[in-house]
């Protein structure tokens, strides 16, 4: 097991990364609180907690004060899952060991949150706030050029070569992403036709009760579609979980940008009421955000990085099933706002 040896009376900076492929995780150190100061490389207002919550790919930086004198304390991680999807409930452990601790001293254990501790995850998420200082301002877009609603979930497609005649898929706005044989960025840069289309829908093509009774047709559409954005345009994206087959928490990741998580809630997003409760002052800045089971999360970002940028579920199984799409951000003015040419040694296959 991993051992972290520490001195009494010190403060340590811990950088915690969830490197799991398919598990959102709780993290605790027995007998010690942690002060969160940063997530996904963006400073936060410090807040104290006994438990961190991280989705796959998320990072959290926290201060640990070693004030217990001597002793051996368990470091533990355990999974979170608040739906019918089965997970390995094994608790991974390491040890925090104070210098001069005798081997005979018993280990101080801890109690992990229940596997379905939804409230624990919501409290942690709601406690995260951008530092929003003069040196590190929270530049939240206050006006929106593109207002998007993406539903995310899984489905079932027919499969002639599968033993049971069907296969699991995942989709955004009921579109399962098909990986191209030529990179989208390369096709965009060189003007290669037939690789992708820029007609990804900004809202579901057939609205329904996303978290209520689901349609009987579980089949998805397929395509290599992108959503086109002008350089420096502002985007509000509401990520809406659905209950197709089984509702599930989806850690969602955007390449190429940080974003501000301005709102979240359970059930269906209400465009008339929910934006009134947005935090546009000091929302947490991240690049990966968990969408609550049968709920929604609203993010805002400025499209100031030209190129092709994936947006996808950070559960590896869902990404491979097609729960992804791409934003194509057009060039702005001048070389600093333009996609750079590919390297001369770019492999041709």
TrEMBL record:
Native organism taxonomy: Eukaryota, Viridiplantae, Streptophyta, Embryophyta, Tracheophyta
An annotated Gene Ontology molecular function: oxidoreductase activity
GO cellular component, one term: extracellular region
Pfam families attached to this UniProt entry: Cu-oxidase, Cu-oxidase_2
Keyword terms of this UniProt record: Copper, Glycoprotein, Metal-binding, Oxidoreductase, Repeat, Secreted
Annotated protein name in UniProt: Laccase
Subcellular localization(s) per the UniProt record: Secreted
InterPro entries: Cu-oxidase_2nd, Cu-oxidase_C, Cu-oxidase_fam, Cu_oxidase_CS, Cu_oxidase_Cu_BS, Cupredoxin, CuRO_3_LCC
Species this chain originates from: Gossypium gossypioides
């Amino acid at each position: 097991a991993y051992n972290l040896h520490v001195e009494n009376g010190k403060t340590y900076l811990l950088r915690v990364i969830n490197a799991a492929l398919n598990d959102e995780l709780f993290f605790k150190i027995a007998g010690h609180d942690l002060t969160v100061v940063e997530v996904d490389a963006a400073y936060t207002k410090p807040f104290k907690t006994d438990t961190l919550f991280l989705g796959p790919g998320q990072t959290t930086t926290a201060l640990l004060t070693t004030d217990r004198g001597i002793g051996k304390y368990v470091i533990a991680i355990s999974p979170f899952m608040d739906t019918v999807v089965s997970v390995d409930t094994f608790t991974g452990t390491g040890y925090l060991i104070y210098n001069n601790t005798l081997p005979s001293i018993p280990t101080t254990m801890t109690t992990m949150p229940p596997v379905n501790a939804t409230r624990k995850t919501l409290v942690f998420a709601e406690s995260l706030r951008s530092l929003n200082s003069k040196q590190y301002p929270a530049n939240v877009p206050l006006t929106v050029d593109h207002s998007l609603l993406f539903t995310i979930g899984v489905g079932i497609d027919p499969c002639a070569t599968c033993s049971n005649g069907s296969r699991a898929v995942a989709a955004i706005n009921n579109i399962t992403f098909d990986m191209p044989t030529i990179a989208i960025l390369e096709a965009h840069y060189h003007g290669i036709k037939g690789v992708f289309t820029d007609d990804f829908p900004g809202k579901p093509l057939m609205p329904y009760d996303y978290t209520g009774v689901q349609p009987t047709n579980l089949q998805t559409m397929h395509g290599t579609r992108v959503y086109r954005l002008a350089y420096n345009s502002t985007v509000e994206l509401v990520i809406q979980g659905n209950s197709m087959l089984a509702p599930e928490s989806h850690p969602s990741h955007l390449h190429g940008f940080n974003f501000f998580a301005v709102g979240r809630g359970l059930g269906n997003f209400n465009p008339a009421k929910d934006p009134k409760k947005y935090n546009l002052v000091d929302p947490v800045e991240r690049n990966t955000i968990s969408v609550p089971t049968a709920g929604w999360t609203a993010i805002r970002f400025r499209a100031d990085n030209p190129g092709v940028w994936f947006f996808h579920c950070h559960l590896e199984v869902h990404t491979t099933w097609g729960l992804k799409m791409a934003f194509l951000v057009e060039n702005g003015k001048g070389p600093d706002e333009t996609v750079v040419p590919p390297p001369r040694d770019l492999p041709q296959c």
